[in-house]
Structure to design on (67 residues):
C-alpha cells in the first residue's frame, strides 16, 4: 500500500469555486430544463373567487376586532 492518500473526486475540477464544483454540469452551464413562458398572466374564475373569499374573510376579521 502506498502512503499517499487520494481524495475521491466527485466533482468537476475545472469550475473555480468549490460550490460550483459540486453542481452538476447542466446546472453549472445554465441550461434550462424546461422553457420559460413569457407573456401575460392568466387568471381563471377560480383564482378570482379564491381572492375574493380571502379578501372578504380578512375584511370581516378586521371589522370584528375593530368593533
Amino acid at each position: 500500500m502506498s502512503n499517499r492518500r487520494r481524495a475521491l473526486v466527485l466533482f468537476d475540477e475545472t469550475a473555480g469555486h468549490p460550490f460550483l464544483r459540486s453542481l452538476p454540469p447542466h446546472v453549472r452551464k445554465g441550461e434550462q430544463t424546461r422553457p420559460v413562458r413569457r407573456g401575460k398572466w392568466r387568471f381563471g374564475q377560480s383564482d378570482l373567487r379564491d381572492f375574493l373569499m380571502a379578501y372578504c374573510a380578512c375584511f370581516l376579521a378586521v371589522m370584528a376586532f375593530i368593533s
